[in-house]
Write a structure and sequence with these properties.
The protein is mainly α. Helices cover 84% and strands 0% of the residues. The longest helix has 45 residues.
């Protein structure tokens, strides 16, 4: 005979997994893609932009990194309507997570671009490349290898942070667990199962991260051996 707690986990698993696949995963992917694009632009402005724009993006990074993500989500979803700006739950969560990812990834991207030796720029210019060509063909490929670990860590953290979207009534994985727990009165079992699903997602991404790092490491070693 199956214990009642195990039966509850079996019965609730399809609903939790559905919420994770339909809401948590798309929210994570979309937020990371938008945030990474924003972070790239912010990093370029920090490094090469005019001083007024540099001041703006520095303030943005300072503000986002210096305030809790939960507070940012509350401001967007519950605060902005007072100013006449209203978002539905999912877009509000998407905006909040994207702004957060943008601030953190901008610092990573800025650091890895700065880590490329100045001689690489000079070598690119010496063979007639423009700034854009040098960035695209020489600087970014080298910076990307260094950026993979910290960016992947940000991505893995993001998939766990999306649980905060539950406070905006987004029906993602954690809120699905809350709904079931409110009916079954078994929060310990439901939240433990939810934690295991998050752990599963994170573990899969960690394995993928390891393989990507290994691949980039081999590529870097091969380049070093042939140079």
């Amino acid at each position: 005979m199956i214990p009642s707690w195990l039966q509850l986990m079996i019965d609730s698993f399809p609903s939790l997994l559905y919420a994770g696949i339909v809401f948590t995963v798309p929210l994570t992917l979309s937020s990371f893609a938008l945030g990474l694009s924003l972070g790239f632009v912010v990093a370029l402005v920090r490094l090469f932009g005019p001083k007024p724009l540099v001041a703006v993006v520095r303030f943005y990074v300072w503000l986002i990194r210096g305030t809790p993500l939960l507070v940012q989500l509350f401001v967007i979803f519950y605060g902005l309507p007072k100013a006449g700006i209203v978002f539905d739950p999912f877009p509000a969560a998407l905006l909040g997570f994207s702004l957060s990812v943008g601030a953190y990834t901008s610092e990573v991207i800025r650091a890895v671009i700065e880590s490329v030796p100045r001689g690489q720029w000079e070598a690119a210019y010496s063979i007639g490349m423009t700034w854009g060509q040098a960035m695209r063909r020489t600087i970014l490929p080298q910076a990307a290898r260094t950026a993979v670990p910290p960016l992947f860590n940000t991505f893995i953290s993001l998939i766990k942070d999306t649980s905060l979207a539950a406070v905006l009534t987004v029906p993602e994985l954690f809120q699905a667990a809350q709904r079931i727990a409110s009916v079954t009165y078994e929060p310990l079992i439901l939240y433990t199962e939810t934690a295991l699903i998050y752990l599963l997602f994170s573990s899969v991404l960690s394995v993928l991260q390891g393989r990507m790092e290994q691949r980039y490491g081999k590529h870097a070693n091969l380049q070093g051996a042939t140079s």
